[in-house]
Write a structure and sequence with these properties.
Blueprint lengths: L1 H15 L1 H12 L3 H13 L4 H12 L12 E6 L4 H13 L4 E5 L3 H7 L10 E6 L3 E2 L3 H12 L8 E9 L5 E5 L6 H4 L9 E4 L2 H7 L5 H11 L6 E10 L21 E7 L3 H12 L6 E7 L5 H8 L6 E5 L6 H11 L4 E5 L3 E3 L4 H9 L4 E9 L5 E3 L2 E3 L5 E3 L19 E3 L6 E5 H6 L13 H11 L3 E12 L11 H18 L25
Parallel strand pairs: 1-2, 1-3, 5-8, 9-10, 9-12, 10-11, 14-20
Antiparallel strand pairs: 3-7, 4-8, 5-6, 5-7, 12-19, 13-20, 14-15, 14-19, 16-17, 18-20
Helix pairs in contact: 1-2, 1-3, 1-4, 2-3
Length: 533
């Protein structure tokens, strides 16, 4: 069965885009396996059989999992609307796992009070709010109980343990898998990916506090997620099969900039290509932000028009710093950062084009938070497709730009490309960070990462200090990627890139680790979020 499904998935992929499929096959035959997998992964994901193939393989792998005796550690609260058949499906699913079911139904306050009257709250049970018609997978009780047991040895206990879920279509077939990130509090503000697929440690008082709300289950989860103590714990298993989900909420832009916002120094490395630099600096001049200065770092421009343009720049607002020698992005930015006056540093490529005047204020609003390190913008190719929506560690055994080539209007992976969220890294093509924090971690690594991966390394070092990288799609700009510098296809550039890639793997183990905001069951070969099959 699995072999047949795999063959059909490849046929679907070929029919979806024959040229792209044949290109992937060519790379596979040339033994360029990483490149081939990167081409195949998004094509195979288009097949309606892709997730069925993954699920079948998982069932074969987990066929030996048995039921676990859990006593009263977990109690389900079955709520929502549905017919008797749907209720019976849910109850049978819970009973198979040995989880008691308390039927709340329409979820009025008196229903909740009556349904939970027999609960022994002194035993401190875990509650599983679950919609009528939803099912849980075999082994769910054991998986959750194992997660509970692992916490019992820690100093603090999480209030929430959650798992992955998929959706049931009208014929009760499993579709639309959601392989979730580990806890991402910023993402959760815009997308409730917990309610209906979790257990939570809550008492009678917590339940009574939300009992009069029609959305009591969601409110209960939100209260637990915001409670002090350990963050929600993620069980990286597909445990919940759901009829419905909450949809992501696209956020509005933050408030307009105020006069007390911190001063920003924008650092723009450049070499020749005055057309790009002029567009970038004009965009900065049109930016709606109270106080900005610019340092243009010129790396041996020899084009007369570029040199004349640089000489004519107003020194009051724009300082031109000459940096001679071989291009070293890290050294260029470090030198400028040492002279910067701003509380915030903005690393900005000269091939960035602004589309809205509020981009910098949006990013600065996030960069001043106590828990945030580097803030990255959403960058688009000139044709409107996404070039950068955060960086995922481990893609290609290195690091890749999330959701690359997706159009902003597309659904993509649960609209993640359109939601502010914590990420492991962001690109330095447009990156904002507090200067003090940039200096505290030593700036960019000039020795190991002269050109590539210096932004990834910087972000990971900031993350280690508790200053997490953040992707902010409300700041959207156009990136004419690598237009001015080329694509490192020459032997010298290729050798340098290979050395920087080796350094990234050596220092950060990117060929081994799974990004906490990605998932082991998502393909490491694709920058799109697609199931690994």
């Amino acid at each position: 069965m699995a072999t047949w499904l795999a063959a059909r998935a490849h046929v679907d992929a070929f029919l979806f885009d024959p040229q792209a499929y044949l290109t992937a096959a060519k790379w596979w035959l040339k033994r360029k396996r990483v490149r081939a997998r990167g081409q195949f992964a998004p094509l195979l994901s288009q097949s309606p059989r892709a997730y069925r193939l993954w699920a079948l393989r998982q069932e074969q792998t987990n066929s030996g999992n048995g039921r676990s005796h859990i006593g009263s550690a977990i109690i389900s609260l079955v709520y929502g609307t549905g017919d008797r058949r749907q209720l019976a499906i849910t109850r049978r699913s819970l009973a198979t796992e040995g989880i008691p079911a308390l039927i709340i139904g329409a979820a009025q306050a008196h229903d909740i009070t009556a349904a939970t009257k027999s609960v022994d709250w002194s035993a401190k049970p875990w509650l599983m709010p679950i919609n009528i018609g939803d099912r849980i997978a075999p082994g769910t009780a054991a998986a959750y109980c194992a997660a509970i047991a692992e916490q019992s040895n820690d100093a603090g206990m999480a209030k929430i343990i959650y798992a992955d879920d998929d959706q049931l279509d009208k014929r009760s077939r499993r579709t639309a898998p959601h392989f979730k990130p580990d806890w991402n509090s910023e993402l959760f503000q815009h997308f409730d990916y917990l309610t209906g697929a979790c257990i939570l440690h809550a008492g009678r008082a917590d339940l009574e506090a939300v009992a009069d709300r029609p959305d009591w289950a969601q409110q209960l989860v939100m209260r637990a997620a915001q409670a002090e103590g350990r963050s929600p714990v993620h069980v990286r298993q597909m445990l919940h099969h759901r009829r419905t989900r909450f949809a992501p909420r696209i956020p509005a832009a933050p408030v307009a900039p105020s006069r007390d916002m911190p001063h920003v120094t924008i650092i723009v490395p450049t070499r020749n290509r005055v057309d790009l630099l002029r567009t970038c600096l004009e965009g900065i001049a049109a930016t709606d932000y109270p106080t900005v200065d610019v340092i243009v770092v010129d790396n041996d421009s020899d084009d007369p028009e570029t040199r004349a343009y640089l000489a004519d720049l107003d020194p009051v607002h724009t300082q031109v710093l000459n940096h001679r020698g071989v291009f070293n992005y890290s050294a260029i930015n470090n030198r400028a950062a040492a002279q910067a006056r701003g509380q915030l540093l903005c690393l900005l490529n000269n091939d960035i084009e602004m589309t809205r005047p509020d981009w910098l204020a949006i990013m600065a609003h996030q960069a001043m938070r106590h828990d945030v390190g580097a803030v990255g913008a959403r960058l688009l190719y000139p044709d409107g497709r996404i070039q950068h929506a955060g960086v995922v560690i481990g893609v290609g055994n290195a690091a890749g730009h999330a959701h690359r080539f997706l159009h902003p209007n597309e659904e993509g992976y649960f609209r993640r490309h359109a939601l502010p969220q914590f990420t492991s890294a962001v690109t330095a093509a447009c990156l904002l960070v507090q200067r003090e924090r940039f200096m505290a971690v030593g700036g960019l690594d000039e020795r190991n990462f002269a050109v590539a991966f210096n932004d990834v390394d910087l972000c990971l070092r900031l993350n280690q200090r508790g200053w997490q990288s953040l992707y902010e799609p409300r700041a959207t700009l156009i990136h004419h990627e690598s237009v001015s510098r080329g694509l490192d296809q020459d032997p010298v550039g290729a050798a340098r890139f290979a050395g920087e890639l080796a350094a990234l793997k050596r220092i950060w183990n990117t060929d081994e680790i799974t990004d906490p905001f990605h998932h082991p069951q998502l393909s490491r070969a694709a920058e799109r979020f697609v199931v690994a099959i």
